[in-house]
Each structure stands twice: as C-alpha cells, then as structure tokens.
Amino acid sequence: MDIGNVQNVRRVRNLRNVHFIRQRKIYKIRKNPYIELTNNEFRKKYRFSNAECLQIVNEIRDFLPRAVNNRGKPISPSLQLLIALRYLARGQVQDDNGDLHGVSQPTVSRCLSQICRALASLKNNYIKFPLTNEELASKKADFRRKFNMPSIIGAIDCTHIRIKKVEGDYAQLYINRKGFYSINVQVICDANCHILHVIARWRGSAHDSRIWNESLIKEQFENGSINGILLGYSGYACTPYMLTPILNPQNDVERQYNYTHIRARNTIERLFGQIKQRFRCLLRGMTISLENAKVAIQWRRTHVLGVAAATPILRGGCTTKIGG
C-alpha cells in the first residue's frame, strides 16, 4: 500500500474521534411594521398604505411558496412583501434591509425574488393593450380632449435601467451609449400615464427603433389589428401608425404640430420620471442578479402603474405624494 494512502486512512480515523459542535442558530427579533408604524410612516417607507399592501398580499398569496409547518420561523407573505418593497422603494443594501425587518441577507434576496416573480405572474391580468373598438375609442378620446390630437392611442419610448456588471462573452452588449450596463425597456402608455405595453428583456446596446421593429405589437399595427396611431420621438421611423416630430419645420402649421406632439408625447416622459422617483432602484441601478433584475423591472413597470388603471389597490398610481 502507498504510504500516502496509509496517512489518509489515519487522518480519516482521527476525524471519527473529533466531535463537531453545531453552531446554534440565532433568530433575530422580527418587527411588524403594520402595527408599529403610522400610516404616513408606512407609506413613506414602503410606497403604499397598510391596507393597500394587505390587499396586494391577498392577490399574490397563491403564487408564493407555502410553509408546511412553523419549523424555522417561516416568514409571512405580508412581511415578505414589505421586505421586497423596501428594496424596490429605496434601493437599500440587502444586509441593512434584513436588519430592519429582523431577517438575514440571504432571506432578503429570496423574498425579493419570490415577491417580484409572484407579482410579475399577474401582469397579464391587468396590463392589456386596447384592442376592441370601445377601448381604442376611449384612448383616442383622452388624447383628443387633453391635447387636441385625433386618432392617438398612446406614446412610446424606451428607458435604460442600470444593472451591475455582467460577466461572460456577451457582457459588452449590455453597455449602452452612455457607457454603463443596462437593460433597455420599451413602454407604451396612454394619455393618463397608464402603461399599456412593456418589453423588458433587451440589452442596453439595443437601439429603441430595433426593439420596436422586432416587437409583436408592431406587426399588429402593420396588419391592421390595431386601429390607431402612436407618438414617438425622431429616433423612430415615421409611418401611418407612428407619428414623429418634423425635424425642420418651415411654417407655423408645422411648428404648431411639433408643439402639440411634444406636449402629448410628454406623457411617457412623465411616466418614467414618476415611477423612477417612486422606486429609486430603477433610478440608481439594480444590484441584484441579471435574471432577478429582469423580473423586478418587469413587475415594477407593469404592476405598479398598470394595475392602477384597473385595481383599487393602486388607484392613483404615482400621482400620490411620496416622501423619501
């Protein structure tokens, strides 16, 4: 027998005589913000009121993993939602977020992933592009009443959401024209800043017009399934279903058209500003993994404002004054 093997056998025998002491698990004291905070403090920290959060929990409860028993002190869905909202609202470091709610950093990461995926699974129930004649007529009437522009059903634009550095062979494709890693998100909204359609999967280097040209919704406009016109900036091609500004207006009529176009398309710019101020991690950048970032972006761009158009939970959307 090899001498090295003999020594290994002796080491294994010695290990049998060693008694390992299992480290005792220490549970932090968990707080209950639903009881401890006032309504104003609760809304400031979590962007929604106490009652709104409880109603959201009722919607997503079936999409969250269920604890079989009380072993390990499982976290309630209501607390999981607050842990996720705290990160989304402030972009807070996960370790500090855990200390605030009495959980560990890995628990915060799991709660964030589970809550965002649960909310994103509901988006098709609320985010629907208008297809019927009645729905399209309502959207057109809003733009006509507010901006005196007929046949307009929505405004389109893209916004970059900063993410942490991406590893791998395709990392450079996530670097946008401004020089940072991002996901380019396309959004269509109506005259009331309610989201009608969202695409949140393109790398930062993708141009806005490419995302539009390769989207399924463009095909619906081309084949006549959608009877209406969108407002876009000059980076998009001007087509029968997409109006862009006139680059060099020559008379008062063209200048008036540009003025009205800018006012109407400003709805999508206001939407981006409102939602990034409400959920600061969209403004400051996502520090979570790329896959979780895509899910989180998908939820925040759809559920928060889109549900506001159809559900009493989020009625008012970003028009509510929020501090922090």
Structure overview:
By secondary structure, this protein is α/β, with parallel strands linked by helices. Helices cover 48% and strands 10% of the residues. The protein has helices spanning 3-16, 33-36, 39-46, 50-60, 77-90, 94-101, 105-120, 123-126, 133-147, 208-213, 216-222, 252-278, 281-284, 290-306; strands at 152-162, 182-189, 195-203, 229-231, 242-243. The protein has a five-stranded mixed beta sheet. The protein is elongated, with a radius of gyration of 25 Å. The model is unreliable at 300-324 (pLDDT under 50). It comes from Macrosiphum euphorbiae (potato aphid). Belongs to the HARBI1 family. Keywords: Cytoplasm, Hydrolase, Metal-binding, Nuclease, Nucleus.
Spatial separation of the terminal alpha carbons: 71 Å
- How large is the radius of gyration? 25 Å
Strand order of the largest sheet: 3-2-1-4-5
Helix count from the secondary structure assignment: 14
- Described by the principal axes of the CA atoms, the overall outline is elongated
Give me the secondary-structure category.
Answer: alpha/beta
Range of helix content: 40-55%
**Roughly what is the average pLDDT, rounded to an integer?**
81
Tell me the major beta sheet.
Answer: 5 strands, mixed
Low-confidence parts, pLDDT < 50 over ≥5 residues? 300-324
Element order: H for helix, E for strand: HHHHHHHHHEEEHHEEHHH
Q: Work out the number of β strands.
A: 5
Which strand-content bin applies to the residues?
A: 5-15%
